[in-house]
C-alpha cells in the first residue's frame, strides 16, 4: 500500500492529528476544508465567496497529491444555513460543472469558527 500525506503547515494539523489530504493507492481524500488564508483569517464575506475559497484550497491539496479537480468523484459540503444552498451550489457548480461528482450538502449546527458558513471535503480517484 502506498500512502502520502499532504500538509498545509497549519498548527492545527499537528495539534488535532490530521493531514490536509491523504493519498492512498490511487485515491486522494481531502480533509474538511474551510475558507482561510495562510494567516488563518477567514476568506469571503458570504457563502458563495467562502465556498470558492475553500474549493481553491481543495484544488491545491489535490494538486499537491498528484490529482486534480477532474479526478474528484465525491464531495461533501457542510453549511451552517441550508438556505445558502443556492450560493454554495453555484460555487460548487462552477468548479465541478464538467466533473459532476457525487455530492452531499447538509446543514450543521456550527463549524469550528463562528464566521465559517461552509466546509468542504473531497475524494478523488487518480487513474493510472
TrEMBL record:
Pfam family, one: Ribonuc_L-PSP
InterPro entries in the cross-refs: RutC-like_sf, YjgF/YER057c/UK114
Domain of life the protein comes from: Archaea
Name of the protein described by the UniProt record: RidA family protein
Source species of the chain: Halosimplex pelagicum
Amino acid at each position: 500500500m502506498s500512502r502520502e500525506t499532504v500538509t498545509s503547515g497549519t498548527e492545527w494539523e499537528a495539534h488535532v492529528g490530521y493531514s490536509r489530504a491523504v493519498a492512498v493507492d490511487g485515491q486522494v481524500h481531502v480533509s474538511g476544508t474551510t475558507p482561510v488564508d495562510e494567516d488563518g483569517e477567514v476568506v469571503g464575506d458570504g457563502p458563495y465567496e467562502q465556498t470558492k475559497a475553500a474549493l481553491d484550497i481543495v484544488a491545491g491539496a489535490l494538486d499537491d497529491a498528484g490529482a486534480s479537480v477532474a479526478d474528484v468523484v465525491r464531495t461533501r459540503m457542510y453549511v451552517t444555513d441550508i438556505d445558502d444552498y443556492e450560493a454554495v451550489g453555484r460555487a460548487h457548480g462552477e468548479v465541478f460543472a464538467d466533473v459532476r461528482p457525487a455530492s452531499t450538502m447538509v446543514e450543521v449546527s456550527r463549524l469550528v469558527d463562528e464566521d465559517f458558513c461552509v466546509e468542504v471535503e473531497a475524494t478523488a480517484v487518480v487513474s493510472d
